[in-house]
Amino acid sequence: MRGTIKKEGTSWFVLYDTGKDPVTGKRKQKKKRGFKTKKEAEKFLSEKLNSINNGTYFEPKDITLNEYLNYWVDNYARLNLAPRTLEHYNYIITQHLKPTLGKIKISNLQPFHLQEYYTQKLETGKIEGGGLSAQSVKHHHRLISKVLKDAVKWQFISRNVAEAVSPPKTKKVEMQTWDNERVKTFLDASQSSVYYSIYLTAIYTGMRRGEVLGLRWQDVDLENNVIYVRQSLQEVKKVGLTFKEPKSGKGRSITITTTLSKELKKIYKVQLEDKLLLGKEYHDLDLVFAQKNGKPIQPTEMARNYRKLVESSGLPYIRFHDLRHTHATLMLQQGVHPKVVSERLGHSSIGITMDTYTHVLPNMQKEAAQQFDQLIK
């Protein structure tokens, strides 16, 4: 008999054969205790015997979550994640997951462990005191889900318990953008800034900050007024400034206006002069937006300048990233098809664009209805 069920005090246990040890040739048996009813034990035994017969049985690894997280970082994260993403995940793992859940055997991890973890993080999760935001805890949940999904794939465990747990609900933050008059005010106020051309590019293209700062001349076609987004600049602690592929993982093209094209031509001319002046001291990385010596622009320095400009101009403050949202909102308000806006922003689907900019759609529908009314009349 390949499996037996017996009572032990008030609970039941299961004993079953898993086959022969390939080295010793001896029969291997597994024992599972703690079933409250005989029916639960029978169900468990049936599932195990079926998996053994089908050749899908494996023994969960007898390691702690701590040990598995180290394995995951070394064998997956370091090889597949962008430096900044790896840095962020490492922080969550070392500062949160390991101290709270690390000692639990990965095979013993249960949904209630994660549910209690989320509750605790919402209440007292901050290192300096206080609770984490629901959005932050949701990031933890996504990481845990990914980590355990890989554990199932690599046969460390038989199921992903994160699938049985719901992360806290997050409130949708209202998007902050400028209208066309405020955009003009900001551009007028920033004309004397060394970063003016960067602000202009962000507003006129909807590119992310890293994409603008990582733009190369080889990716700019001034004859046809097209920019190709193929790399992004990012700042990583202990590493410095690095380049990576765009967030979507693939490049995209953005048609630019004559105004922006003229500005880029001015920059190109100034850079040629800088190269001649500095000679070998010029660090030629082919960057469109660079320091006078050719090195990449420090994102944090530019961010400080941006904040000062917004404050001095008297405009309501919006983040640099909101210039991207401003670009998309203004285009949609002008009647540009959402598919075109989606392609300019580099969204993987038009659905993301529609979901992100739902605040624009009611007015667009109103205008469309009025235009239809005029057409019929």
Walk me through the structure.
The structure is a single chain. This protein is mainly α. The chain folds into three domains: 3-54, no CATH class; 65-164, Tyrosine recombinase, N-terminal domain (DNA polymerase, domain 1); 180-368, Intergrase catalytic core (hpI Integrase, Chain A, Orthogonal Bundle). Helices cover 50% and strands 12% of the residues. It contains 14 helices and eight strands. It has helices at residues 38-54, 65-80, 83-101, 111-124, 134-153, 180-189, 196-205, 209-213, 258-278, 299-313, 322-333, 338-345, 350-356, 361-376, and strands spanning 3-8, 11-20, 27-35, 220-221, 226-229, 232-236, 240-244, 252-255. Strands 1-2-3 form a three-stranded antiparallel β-sheet, with helices on one face. Strands 4-5-8 form a three-stranded antiparallel β-sheet, with no helix packed on it. A two-stranded antiparallel sheet has the order 6-7. Helix 4 packs antiparallel against helix 5 (134-153), helix 7 runs antiparallel to helix 9 (258-278) and helix 12 (338-345) crosses helix 13. The chain is elongated. The termini are far apart.
Q: Strand share of the residues? A: 5-15%
Overall tally of domains: 3
- CATH topological fold name of the largest domain: hpI Integrase, Chain A
Q: Shape from CA axes?
A: elongated
Give the end-to-end Cα distance, rounded to a whole number of Å.
85 Å
Low-confidence stretches: none
Reported for the largest beta sheet, the result is:
3 strands, antiparallel
Q: What do the pLDDT scores average to?
A: 90
* Quaternary structure: single chain
Order of strands in the sheet with the most strands? 1-2-3
Q: Judging by the overall fold, what is the CATH architecture of the largest domain?
A: Orthogonal Bundle
Count of β-strands? 8
User: What string gives the helices and strands in order?
Assistant: EEEHHHHHHHHEEEEEHHHHHH
Q: What would CATH call the homologous superfamily of the largest domain? A: Intergrase catalytic core
Please state the structural category.
mainly alpha
Number of helices: 14
Radius of gyration: 28 Å
Instruction: Estimate percent helicity.
Output: 40-55%
What's the CATH class label of the largest domain?
A: Mainly Alpha
